[in-house]
Design brief:
Elements lengths: L32 E16 L2 E17 L9 E5 L6 E10 L14 H7 L2 E10 L3 E2 L17 E2 L19 E2 L14 E2 L3 E12 L3 E7 L22
Antiparallel strand pairs: 1-2, 2-3, 2-4, 4-5, 5-10, 6-9, 7-8, 10-11
Length: about 240
């Protein structure tokens, strides 16, 4: 928290501070709160006939209330979606020992070369799907003339039906606030793209001492991007 921010207005920032002989005065406090609600589910199949899996899904919402100088200076407080809010989070892991080879359903009497080539194979996979993290539109200009970062005014949703890497949100839904005023756009009102990842492995055991393994991380080669440039008054916005 910064307790030496001047009120919006004309003139030099330093001379208008509550304590003009000092610059920014920061202190730590515990005057904030988080509220978290969730539905958590898990489905498990323990190893049976060579197959096992575990699927976990969480549907949740997290809200944070805290001091936020960007919307009103020293004493401003804001209640908004938490920066780490992930509404949907699914994780699935599974493994399958192929029913082929010595003692298995198929080729159960395999020995020698046949067992060496076809028996003892297993597959495993880990799938993660989750919502993108929220982010906050900003401005690069000091419209309030207070020396702290600020927000734009919001005149539309800002979300696009089909966002692309080149244009992730609707920058025309935000405008610069009037001179010497704070913007009214809320915190964490937009989101990054979802995170999707599939890891997959195939491996074969030769007795108890040797294993051949092929692993693919991000098998589908799906990119996951961070939040875009958030300052709506710059050339890279969105």
């Amino acid at each position: 928290t910064n307790l030496n921010i001047p009120e919006p207005g004309a003139g030099g920032v330093q001379a208008r501070r509550p304590y003009p002989q000092f610059g920014n005065i920061f202190y730590f406090d515990t005057n904030m709160s988080n509220t978290y609600h969730s539905l958590q589910t898990t489905l498990v199949r323990r190893a049976s006939k060579g197959l096992w899996y575990m699927a976990s899904y969480t549907f949740s919402k997290s809200i944070t209330t805290q001091n936020t100088p960007a919307v009103g200076g020293n004493t401003a407080r804001e209640k908004a979606i938490s920066g780490f809010d992930i509404p949907h989070n699914l994780a699935v892991s599974a493994g399958w020992e192929l029913p082929v080879g010595d003692g298995k359903r198929f080729l159960g009497d395999a020995r020698g070369v046949t067992q060496a080539l076809l028996g003892g194979w297993q597959m495993q996979a880990i799938l993660i799907l989750r919502s993108g993290r929220p982010f906050t539109p900003t401005i690069s200009a000091d419209r309030a003339n207070t020396g702290v970062g600020q927000r734009p005014n919001r005149i539309g949703s800002g979300a696009l039906d089909n966002p692309t890497v080149e244009k992730w949100f609707d920058t025309t839904a935000f405008v610069l606030p009037a001179q010497f005023t704070y913007g009214d756009s809320g915190a964490n009102i937009l989101r990054e793209g979802s995170y999707r990842n599939l890891d997959f492995s195939v491996f074969k055991r030769f007795g108890n001492k040797l294993e051949f393994r092929v692993e693919c991380f991000n098998l589908t080669n799906t990119p996951s991007f961070n939040a875009p440039a958030t300052a709506i008054d710059t050339a890279t916005a969105g």
